[in-house]
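Researcher: Good morning. I'm working through a list of sequences from a screen, and I'd like to move beyond sequence-only analysis. For each chain I'm collecting a predicted structure so we can compare shapes side by side. This is the next one on the list. No need for commentary yet; just the structure.
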Amino acid sequence: MNTKALRQKILDLAIHGKLVPQDPNDEPASVLLEHIRAKKERLIKEGKIKKPKKSKAACDKPHYRYEEPFEIPSSWTWCTLGDLCRFLSRGKSPKYLDEDRTYPVFAQKCNLKDGGISLEQARFLDPTTVNKWNEEYKLRNGDVLVNSTGTGTVGRTRLFTEDCLGQYPFVVPDSHVSVVRTFDEINSEFMYAYLSSTIIQEYLADNLAGSTNQKELYIGVLESLPFPLPSYKEQQRIVSKISEWHSRIENIEQDKTTLIDTVKIAKSKILDLAIHGKLVPQDPNDEPASELLKRINPKAEITCDNPHYQNLPSGWAITTIKEVCENINGLWKGKKEPFVNVGVIRNANFTKDFQLDYSKIEYIDVEQRAFNQRHLKNGDLVVEKSGGSDNNPVGRAILYDGKDAVFSFSNFTMVLRIVHKDLITSKFLYYTILAKYKQGVMRQMQTQTTGLHNLILEKYLAMPIFLPPLSEQKRITDKIEEIFASFNNIMESL
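Model: Good morning. Structure tokens for this chain:
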């Protein structure tokens, strides 16, 4: 289930008057609008609020000002957002003094991408300039804050509440944030729902000014925005219903998160069972892995004991990566002709679930001589040997599936290429390495210099591999893929 889309659907139904039924006993919205307009005129005359200035509209779709964008219930009425605001303005350019952390300045980054508001990254006002900020610029409970500058963040809308203030005496907005403050006759949460809805967010995005890298949402666009006004009682019913639906959605999301975590744990457990011979039954007719090792190397010392997991199944043996694979370092950009243009697998092509992402392949000119030794083949394992992070150690591996193209791999990676394909399959080796990575084994096989994590190749290549008979390897990988496919189907249905 796409809960993000569901949230938007709820908001869209709300502003169309389709989320809750209308009550014929409610006062018509037209009466409410006249009351607000009269109140606004009175407060302007009394000097308690300022008369709105003519703002730069920067609107290339003026029909939105004169035509009703969509149908609304007969008890509702159309007006503009400016009609309903006692304060509608951008913030001001502040003078900062971050050493004094008394008065936070609300910036675009305070409107969090994933929802909510945070002042953790706010800068702070120079206290000597406090008297330059009128009371109206101090953010209040119920203010709707709209990011008004910058590609990617412009239009992002959040609701300011008393909880956002925290221990600070007040918060002021900078010039990249617009403040929408309505009269008390308008429910601020309804206003927030309106400005957050899909249709309005798309309208704002279509009516930005400025260059590609510096988009601007002028106050005039907000001011002239058509607003579908219901009665105050219906606003309250709508907000209550939105809250009810959001609680349900949050429960769904929590259950979804729990299920995702459970699936991750289950997959790791499946892999652990697989590499220890506990996932599928053994077949006494299978040729033992020890015999395979002897045939390849008659002088090899065959080990069938596992110090960390005693009593491997009968027919299993222990080998190492270096005994079954050759390792090939990645290549750099070419310096000597002749060159060949190839797609290069980089760390960026490793997905979170250890698959190969073909959508971000970078093509570069490399030396023909170097490429001849590093032309990816079906069944190659591409291993991240440099990069990673504290939370994601190096050593991740992806299985190259032989996609029909000319591919190689970067110098931050290496390839494990199976030498004896009658000893071990590439899929079994891949799942073995994946299991060990999820167990945290690779954390003990890396160094860190200048922020870069590097795989200790000697340790990595000496990593023990628990080797089942060849036929059992296929049964194991088939079973893993069968179970993982079931898990993936569950996840796709969420």
